[in-house]
Amino acid sequence: MDYAGKIKNALDAGDVIIIGADCEVTYSGRAESFLPSGDRIVIIKSDKSLIVHQPKGTAPVNYMKQGTVHEISENGKNILLKARNSAMKEFMEIEFSKIHFVHCQKFEDDREIELQGTEKHMSDMIMKNPGLIGNDFRPLSREEHTKYGFIDVFGHDKDNNLVVVECKRFNGDLNAVTQLRRYVEKIKALKGIKNVRGILACPAISANALKMLEDWGFEYRKIEPPKHLERHKKNQKALDEF
Amino acid sequence: MDYAGKIKNALDAGDVIIIGADCEVTYSGRAESFLPSGDRIVIIKSDKSLIVHQPKGTAPVNYMKQGTVHEISENGKNILLKARNSAMKEFMEIEFSKIHFVHCQKFEDDREIELQGTEKHMSDMIMKNPGLIGNDFRPLSREEHTKYGFIDVFGHDKDNNLVVVECKRFNGDLNAVTQLRRYVEKIKALKGIKNVRGILACPAISANALKMLEDWGFEYRKIEPPKHLERHKKNQKALDEF
DNA sequence: GGGGAGAGATGCCGC
DNA sequence: GCGGCATTTCTCCCC
Q1: Which residues does residue A116 pair with via DSSP β-bridges, in sequence order?
Q2: Lower CB density within 10 Å: C or N end of chain B?
Q3: Is the shortest CB-to-strand distance from A195 to strand C under 7 Å?
Q4: What is the percent of chain B where pLDDT is above 70?
Q5: At what angle do helices B174-191 and A174-191 cross, to 10 degrees?
Q6: Residues 6 or more apart from B182 whose CB is under 8 A from it?
Q7: Are strands B162-167 and B196-202 parallel, antiparallel or unpaired?
Q8: Window 145-204 of B, Cβ < 8 Å to A
């Protein structure tokens, strides 16, 4: 079968291309890599991104980003795929020694995933229920991407201390504490004041992180991110009953 | 065609399963999500990990980790896949309204990718060429995962200052600076001394990060990670000549 | 299994 | 394009 021609046509048509094959992969760009011969799945999507999957693991072993230019040629009896992404200065070469199958198809999919339980949902919840942080906590604003930095929730307490809240949807770690510390220091410097409280809001915290948090005079609030997709309660119920 | 039976057999055999189908996906675990109906690629690998890909982008839209248990059933004329990962407390349900194709196959692949140009390669290079940090820099040891913490390169200068080097294979950012700062403070506390220098080694650094670095009295060294796979120079040359 | 950190991280948003 | 940051990050390594 003329796999090379089939792949070329699909590339021109903007189809999704799924290849099962024994192949080796060479990559050069942000780093360099070589993957010796073995059976893999190679997918070229309609946005010209490319992923190579081994038979184990959720992450692709090699990949090229959207907007890559693909060129099919033949090297003796092997098919050669050269992929180039000028913007990223990245190059890839896949040499197929045995193709098991090639499937090409137009894919109709204009829907986006609906996700619940992110850090943003957490800060939304805190804005609506400031008591989660403290009885006297008064949120002022959700300062995302402003001149004060990327602070999740920003407010003050009854003693007129400024309060910086950093949310983490999972376990708080050393990184989260240093991040909070950076924000508090930035606010202190910008405002020229010293009474700024720092609060880390997350469902759990590591012992080391808690120690560093307390050493720096910051506070921990045990808060869970909201995770229920209200629009799909029926489905959720079904999943819970597994 | 009996797609349900085909998938069940492949699951038992440990084959890789590739499905092209119109489907909707419900997920509940670390977060919750719902993906309305559309054409996707669903892959179940031999380690029972699962990925769902839309026709665009390199990252999967939904996934389950290795060791997931899969159960195929039929819901009227639709095929239902229930996936459960007890260890991760994660659940997924995929309802296939139209299956375009199912491909099952045993994959032979025992090779691992060879990668060059990582942060570890950078610190190796600095250990061999300490002059990259300074004429008087003397590396003592590569202290990874020891009592001193996760420090890339550790040494001293002719004035007997301890020197902590943090390597980044790409642009240095605020996070890299705060990380270096944490290490320097840890060494100071552990040793009870004050003369500890901090050096950030990376190919480039953001303006904000450089300012923070200098505010804290640390230093920047412009160093590129080594990126040549010596064993595959021939291939690399071919890629360069694209 | 948890903690800590790198990754060709990816993806998103804002400037 | 770069910068800063969340991510169902993933993966590795050590304790």
Answers
A1: B32
A2: N
A3: no
A4: 90
A5: 100
A6: A174, A178
A7: parallel
A8: 169-170, 174-175, 178-179, 181-182
Tokens of A28: 């050069």
pLDDT digits (tens, 9 = 90+) for B190-203: 889 999 999 999 99
Q: What is the pLDDT of residue B150?
A: 83
Strand C nucleotides within 7 Å of a protein CB = 1-15
Q: What is the pLDDT, as a whole number, of residue A141?
A: 77
- Residue B37 DSSP code: E
Categorize the per-residue pLDDT at A232 as very low, low, confident or very high, splitting at 50, 70 and 90. very low
Q: Which domains, from first to last, does chain B contain?
A: 3-105 (2.70.180.20), 119-222 (3.40.1350.10)
Please check whether strand C approaches the CB of B65 to within 7 Å: no
CB within 8 Å: B175 and A170 = no
Query: DSSP of A68-108, one letter per residue?
Result: -EEEEEEETTEEEEEEEETTTTEEEEEEEEEEEEEEEE---
A136 touches strand D (CB under 7 A): no
User: Scanning every residue of chain A, which has its alpha carbon at the shortest distance from the alpha carbon of B228?
Assistant: A32
Q: What is the dihedral of CA A185, A189, A195, A200, to 10 degrees?
A: -20
Average confidence score pLDDT of chain A: 92
Residues of A in contact with B111 (CB under 8 A): 35-38
Q: Which residue is nearest to nucleotide C6 (CA to C1')?
A: B119
Q: What is the pTM of this model?
A: 0.93
Average pLDDT, chain B: 91
State the nearest residue by CA to the C1' of D6.
A119
